Every structure is written in C-alpha cells, then in structure tokens.
Amino acid sequence: MRARLALLVAAVSVLTLIAFLVPLALLVRTVAEDRATVRATADAQSLVPVVGTADAATIRVTVEQLAAESGREVSVFLPDGTVLGAPAPRTPAVALAARGQSLTGESAAGREVVIAVQGRADGTGVIRIVVPKQELTAGVTRAWLVLALLGVLLVLIGLAVADRLARTLVRPISELSAVSHRLANAELDARVTPAGPAELREVAGALNHLAARIQVLLVQEREQVADLSHRLRTPLTALRLEAESLRDPDDAARITAAADGLERAVTGLIRQARWRTPTPGAAASDAAAIVADRVAFWSVLAEDTGRAVSLDLAPGPLLVGVPADDLTAAVDALLGNVFAHTPDGTPFAVRLAAEAGDVLLTVADEGPGMDEGPGMPAGAVERGASSAGSTGLGLDIARRAAQAGGGRLELRAAPGGGTQVLLRLGPQREA
C-alpha cells in the first residue's frame, strides 16, 4: 500500500507541476525576450534626436559609442543611401521603415528593431538595432533550472508526506493482521490498540469485541463440558459398583474395564476441551497393542451377534504419532460402525500393517455398503454427516485421529461387496 500511495502522489505531483511549470517556463522566456527588446528600443529612441538633426559625422560618432556600450549591432540608414555604424544590407524591415513606419521583426541574427526618423531635410532616416539571440534568452536557462529543481523538490516533499501518511495507514492494518493471526493460533488474549482513521479504529474495536466474545464462548463451552463430566461420573460410579457385585469374575472384570475406558474417554475429552492450543501427534502410542485390545473387546459382542471376526495384526510394537486415547476412540468408532450399520451375522475383518513406512489400519465388512450414490462421497467423512440415523461423528473421530498423526482416512467399496475403511495413521515412529 505504501508503494501504491507513493506512486499515486508522485503521478499527481508530476502532472500538477507540468501543468504549472510549463506555462511558467514559457512566460519566463517571453519576459526575457520582451525585456531585451524594450532595452534595444530605448537605445534606438535615444538616437532619434541625433539622427533627426545632426550631420553625418556626429551621427557616426554617436552610433559607434552606443554600439560599444550596448554590444549590439547598430546601423543608421540616411536618405541618401549612406549607412553609418555597422554595415548592414537594406532589409525589407528597413525599406518599410523608410516609408515612415517603425516596427520590430525577426531575422537570422536575432530580433531586428527599426525606427523611422522623420524631420530631416533630405528625407526619412532609419535606425536599425539587432538584438542577438543570446540576449533574447539571457537568464532563461538558469530560470528553467531553478524551476526544474523546485519541481523535483516539491515532488520529493510530496513523496515524504505520502510515505508518512501511508505509514499511519499501514501500521494499524499490519497490527490488525498480526492480531488476527495470533487469534487464529489460539492466543485469545491478543488485542488491537485502535489507531489510524476512524474506519480502521472501528475495525479494531470489532476485532477486539470478537476476540472477547470467543473467549466467553470458550469458557461457556468448557464449563458445559465440565458439567457434563460431573453428571457422567455418578452413573459411571454406579455402573462400576454394579459390575463389582456380579458373581462371574470375568463379567465383572469386563464391565469394569468398559466403565474405566468410558471414564478415561470422558476425562480425555474434558482435558482436550480445556487445552488452549492442541498439539497433535505430541504423544505416541502402540497401534498394535491398541488394535489387538479393542478387537478383543468387540469380539465378545461379535460372538453374541453371530459375526465372524478376522484379525491380521502385524507384530508390534507399531508406534504412531496419535495419542492412545484418540486411537482407541478411532478404532472403537470404526468397529462400532460395523455393528451399527450392518445386519447381525455380517463378518468383518481388521488388518493392521506397516506399508512403505506408514502404519495402515483397514476395517472391511461384507455388509450392504454405503447407499449414498455411486462412489464414496466426501460428505461421508464430514462431521455430522450420516444417512443411517446416527450422529455421524464416528468417521470424523477416526479422520481426526489419523490427521493428528499425519495421515488420512479413505473410504472404498470392498471388492466382494460392503465397505472398506482405510485409516492411515502416519509414519511409523522409532521405539
């Protein structure tokens, strides 16, 4: 913006100066020419009494003296054809003046001033003075240089003023941009000091109001999450007590583990909601151990619903840049989708392998597949998108977990029918 404002001011200044200085320069030249002509005319007028009354010898002396003093070419043409002073041809201007008409004309040597002198007994005499071109333009070049320097100085002053004005505009805009980036990076205490024109001050106030409003909304959201956690802990505690009262130790252990997992998930959600700047991929987890544990958990339900489970698990540990709680939630979401969206008895397969340095989790079922039209639409992995009456958050949870480790989520139609979900968990980490 500063460069554009400077260019605009420079263009306007140059055009304005051209509009004023060019006529002024022409006026300076005209004034110089008129001044030289007036001086020559005055000198010629001083010879009129002498030429009109004196003899030839006196006229010659006076003319030579005037020529020496003025440095101009002075000639007097008497009626009998005698030329006194500087020898010169009888020009058309001289011939016209001999008829009694004084005038000023241009010649090759400069400006020619001729004056008719009447009253002599022998006829009309003519005084001719030539103003050289150097005298006509004396001082013009210097005046033009002064005008040019003045124009350059004015342009520089205009640029300096424009640059200062641009800084007063650019500085608040730069501050607005910096604060907006800080807000985007979750620095919600960033604020703008209103400065600059009224419009920019209004924008700064609006941005500060927006930041304050975001802080209020986040505080409300965190409090709601905390309230939710408080409400969930009571039924979780009751569930754990009920599990401990079961007679079958295996059932008690299984239900207690499920309650503990649910409590960990709730605690993780609360902690994540209260983070100011999440750091995806900061913690590593063993994908092999987590997948094996979650498949074993869901295998009990699969057995109850008559589903055959196929597990192809690469030898661990397979460390990925996804927190354990997030990866557990992602695996549960994918396996839960199989049970929620396929009929009982539908087999499914889970495969975890390291391919080309990446860890790839594949969950494939032999169900009816997705009925949202040809291909796998991108909307299937958008948050809240579902055509089966569910919340639509399962695939989004898995996608976010994959992105936390630098991977992605892919949906495909299985070769034998059904749906195949590929969760790329990012590059495998060193132990």
Automatic annotation (TrEMBL):
Enzymatic class: transferase
InterPro entries found in the cross-reference section: 2C_sensor_his_kinase (IPR050980), HAMP_dom (IPR003660), HATPase_C_sf (IPR036890), HATPase_dom (IPR003594), His_kinase_dom (IPR005467), HisK_dim/P_dom (IPR003661), HisK_dim/P_sf (IPR036097)
Membrane topology summary: Multi-pass membrane protein
GO cellular component: plasma membrane
TM region positions: 143-162
Keyword line: ATP-binding, Cell membrane, Kinase, Membrane, Nucleotide-binding, Phosphoprotein, Transferase, Transmembrane, Transmembrane helix, Two-component regulatory system
Every HAMP domain range: 167-219
UniProt-listed CDD domains: HAMP, HisKA
Compartment(s): Cell membrane
MF-aspect GO terms: ATP binding; phosphorelay sensor kinase activity
SUPFAM superfamilies: ATPase domain of HSP90 chaperone/DNA topoisomerase II/histidine kinase (SSF55874), HAMP domain-like (SSF158472), Homodimeric domain of signal transducing histidine kinase (SSF47384)
Histidine kinase domain location: 227-429
Reactions listed under catalytic activity: ATP + protein L-histidine = ADP + protein N-phospho-L-histidine
Entry-linked Pfam families: HAMP (PF00672), HATPase_c (PF02518), HisKA (PF00512)
Enzyme Commission number(s): 2.7.13.3
Protein name (database record): histidine kinase
Organism, as annotated: Micromonospora profundi
